[in-house]
Amino acid sequence: MRLWLRFLLPLCLLWPAHAWAWGPEGHEVIARIAGHNLTPAARLRIAQLLGGDASPLMMLQSNWADEIRADRPETTGWHFVNIEVGNRGYSRRRDCPRDNCVVRQIEREMGLLRDPHSSHAARLEAFRFLIHFVGDLHQPLHAADRYDKGGNALVIYDGRRRTSLHRVWDQDLVKTLGKDPMLVAASIEANVTPQDKAKIAAGTPEDWANESFRLAVREIYARFPRLGPTRLPRNYAARERQVVQQQLLRAGLRLAAILNGIYS
User: Fold this and answer.
1) pLDDT in tens, 214-255
2) Domains recognised in the chain with CATH numbers
3) What value, to the nearest 5°, has the Cα angle with vertex 80 and ends 194 and 39?
């Protein structure tokens, strides 16, 4: 075994499998973008399911899947897919054994929401999972791994603060966009044409997993070639701002496309 693997693997065992993607703010931004792009028919059906105005209730429910993880430990693996750096992309057989990954869970929740025989309780739970998992899939480090738990075991120093690369992407970069998720969502959507939105919304969960994986390899891991503790560049948030906004926009528009397809 290579020397760096001997050092890193024991460290990985001490880290949580994956942190929560985007943090509460990011998921609320995604839900707001999705809610703003629903068709009238989808908005009505979702309002009936949730028992109130669709858009604000989607924001409120967007972090439910994280909030119940302590009580539902079997759902932990549903939030990410470990595609090892060095592979060409997602393989269901290799990367999603027993359907225990975010790609298959998104597809599962979509199926439950389409099933006319699903109970109201089953559809409500599927909806709550779906709006969260689509967001998770668009956090690049929830679709890639370099023997470091998706960046959880890569120690980063941000000034004097000790954190992980995964947490930087989950929470720190999103928080630099602003404190109000509704204003952040509106800013991200500004000047995006309907034609561009249609192009962005295309694809399947597998396509989006591969897209996030390639982004993690090219944009994140390539900038952190060291496997040991690394200091975060001072301009890192500014440099990655456009990427973060892009991924939040993609997640929101694709979530809306899924829901419009199911409910319209």
Assistant:
1) 999 999 999 999 889 999 999 999 999 999 999 999 999 999
2) 3-263 (1.10.575.10)
3) 25
